[in-house]
Amino acid sequence: MKFREMDTQQIETALETSVRLGLKEAEVNKRQQLKGYNELQEGEKQSAILLFFAQFKDFMVIVLLAATLISGILGEYIDAIAIIAIILVNGFLGFFQERKAEKSLEALKQMAAPQVQVLRDGEWKRIPSREAVMGDILKFTSGDRIGADLRIIESASLEIEESALTGESVPVAKLNEAIRYDVESIGDEVNLAFMGTMVTRGSGTGVVVATGMETAMGKIADLLQSTETQITPLQRRLEQLGKILIFTALFLTIVVVATGILQGNDLYTMFLSGVSLAVAAIPEGLPAIVTVALSLGVQRMIRKNAIVRKLPAVETLGCASVICSDKTGTMTQNKMTVTHVWSGGKTWNVSGTGYQPDGEFYDGEKKVAPKSDKSLHQLLTFGLLCNHADLVVKDSKYVVDGDPTEGALLVSAMKAGLTRESIMNNFTIVKEFPFDSTRKMMSVVVKDENGKQFVVVKGAPDVLISRCDSILWSQKSQFLSKENINHVQEAINGLARQALRTIAIGFKPLSPGTILLDEAEAERNLVFIGLQGMIDPPRAEVGLAVKESREAGIKTVMITGDHAQTAKAIASQLGILRGKEKVIEGKQLAEMSMGDLEDVVEDVAVFARVSPEDKLKIVKAFQNKGHIVAMTGDGVNDAPAIKTADIGIAMGITGTDVAKEASSLILLDDNFASIKSAIAEGRNIYENIRKFIRYLLASNVGEIMVMFFAMLMALPLPLVPIQILWVNLVTDGLPAMALGLDKAEGDLMKRKPRHPNEGVFARGLGWKVISRGILIGLATLIAFIVVYKNNPDNLVYAQTIAFATLVMAQLIHVFDCRSEKSILARNPFGNKYLIGAVISSLLLMLIAIYYPPFQPIFHTVPIAMRDWLLVIGMASIPTFLLAGTFLVRKTK
Ligand code: ATP
């Protein structure tokens, strides 16, 4: 017999489980050992050896290997071996850096791994979905990704989207009854839910009937294997730049070699010069350092509670000019407490704080017993009936398990002495139409102890009132007149103006035998009972984050399903809504064309009473106005807007799997302030990359200048290829890396966002590279000429001086790269990694010069003490000159 044909009891027997208690942990272990983890096997990963060899397929390395080969053939063994050694060192460095980057991205994937809710030993808990086994009972709700193949045993308005398996994007309605007929395809399996598919509506529970590679998804897993490596726009631009540099290098090589040969120089020297120039022109270490800087930046973001799911987002974050954020839970604490209750023209205040179920009801100054007023009592009872939340004690504090809005209603009922256990003796829930943020309501069909049925509806008051035709007034039901509606509206606005979130409750008696087909039928012709108003205090850190974002040229927009007045009150408290900025409501938004919205959108600070579907329109309007938009979301219906936004952000705690999968960034703490921190980090990562691009390229320009001018002046080569290689691959790498770890400049969040299309050399970077490069080149050349002219017989000594001057000039210049403005604009020694890196590079240089076994390899001889003055003096000139011009400009 197949699972689809069995009833619940048969499934329990077949899988030796209990629908009421779940599996026992001991049994789970046994099953895990038997069948393994519930995961799809991944395709072959790139092995360490392959990754190591991948370091050598670079064009530059091929040029070098060819040079080695020719040196070898010509009998220049020392050169050949030295080049190979340097290539190997570089290969190892690249390998370890990439391994590290890969590992941290891998760890990131684990953090974003899906979880499921499982019943074990009679208790519901959350576990990583890989730990689920056959026979486990799982609970799922709208927005969840199904964690294993399940036979559904309970379902409420359940719909699942199975396009991952069937290609069909229309969700399938799912049932929990046994099916005793043949089905033709997976799409017809209406009482099974499959691993990897998405719950788009309703909720349910199911028994795991297949895990891992045995699931329907596992059977087609081979087809799904695609390991795409993500690269960021900057990395793409650098790849293009790399190609341009290679062609430039080739061109220079050909010119130099041809001229040299025509001038009658010896072939091998000319060949080596050509190779040296090619090596000098190409920043070999750059791509690896960019990868590492990105992955380290991603790790820093995790510490600030933001998980990057798509690497390009790291860069885009720095360009964000608008943050569209939810209110509830992101800007506010999502800890709700009912403080006011309204029914039939009367308002009661409720005392107590947080979720502590102790408090009293007051009519003005007078304490009242809630049971004394029938409407009040009914309002509280119905708030508890149409409710899923539970109150639990954690670390001796009351916390809500479930929706905080419902938690607040549960607590207000408890303050009146009502508990779920006690009212469930009198009522049974027959059917439920779950809450969704488009409808903004939830309802249940209830049967009382006498068998009478009625519907209880709760939801956004302005929506609910439009579904009512009568109202409880002075504890009696009466026709809902215009006047009554005005009273209700006044009450709603009064509560909302105090920043309270309002929930209305209504009901409708059903005549015996009525069968309600859908929510539209349930939620009409209602009797309005009253309102409960709850506070949800703003998060303490959000106001400052909004202010700092504004200073950074980033506009904050609140998008909420809540009432306009409530949203307005909170947005004003947080400094989001100021001066002439506008509030637009969902209704108005619906009437606006895209053009109308674009005309005003930059002046809007709050969108209230909107549906998730409206978010897409808002994102597009901002994008059409040229903005880079970050948009938050948590529900299934938020996914399209999250995908369309330049930076889609999902909530880590309240977010559904669907929202998380559509996002490029997940906020671990659901906190608006973390978005600002992530943006600041994104800006810093990009600026740091610019810093070391500037450093490495200026160094390369310097090297080319030295070589090229020397050739033009018919001087011998100031640097031998092995020295250039040593500088480019070894001594430059560490300081560049340290720049990648630099702290942000003080004014980074006071600047306007960067334009996303700006090129690598924007904002004066190109000029800095060329001007600094030329200065470094000239300083090195002058040091070389001075020493060479004094003692033309000792070329090796002059070359050692040139080598030392070049390295020193770069190691001084690296401190200048820490600031966009000047070395004097910030404490040059503020980066301890950089100081460590510079000291290491200095030591490496000294080893190449003073360690006797290395001297023949690097073509060096020891430098006399007095000549160090020349070296250091010349090496400092470029940076000091620039600092001087900065001071002059500042004093002017
Ligand atoms: P945000 O979009 O900022 O998170 P929100 O939480 O108010 O704001 P929704 O969750 O879409 O947005 O809720 C919209 C409205 O629906 C709320 O203002 C409230 O009146 C009502 N509402 C919220 N939760 C429930 C619920 N569990 N049952 C019934 N009505 C609810």
Q: Helices and strands in order, then pairings?
A:
Elements: H1 8-15, H2 25-35, H3 48-54, H4 59-73, H5 77-111, E1 115-120, E2 123-128, E3 137-141, E4 149-161, H6 163-166, E5 172-173, E6 192-193, E7 198-210, H7 216-219, H8 221-224, H9 233-262, H10 267-281, H11 286-303, E8 306-308, H12 312-317, E9 322-326, E10 337-343, E11 346-350, E12 361-363, E13 366-368, H13 374-385, E14 390-394, E15 397-401, H14 404-415, H15 420-424, E16 427-436, E17 441-448, E18 453-459, H16 461-465, E19 468-473, E20 476-479, H17 482-497, E21 501-510, H18 519-522, E22 526-535, H19 542-551, E23 555-559, H20 564-573, E24 582-585, H21 586-591, H22 594-600, E25 604-608, H23 612-624, E26 629-633, H24 639-644, E27 647-651, H25 657-662, E28 665-667, H26 672-712, H27 721-731, H28 733-740, H29 765-790, H30 795-816, H31 832-850, H32 855-858, H33 865-891
Parallel strand pairs: 9-23, 9-26, 19-22, 23-25, 24-25, 26-27, 27-28
Antiparallel strand pairs: 1-2, 1-3, 3-7, 4-5, 4-6, 4-7, 8-28, 10-11, 10-22, 11-12, 12-13, 14-15, 16-17, 17-18, 18-21, 19-20, 21-22
Helix pairs in contact: 3-5, 4-5, 4-10, 5-11, 5-27, 9-10, 10-26, 10-27, 11-26, 11-28, 13-14, 17-20, 19-26, 22-23, 26-28, 26-29, 26-30, 28-31, 29-30, 29-33, 30-31, 30-33
Bound molecules: adenosine-5'-triphosphate (ATP).
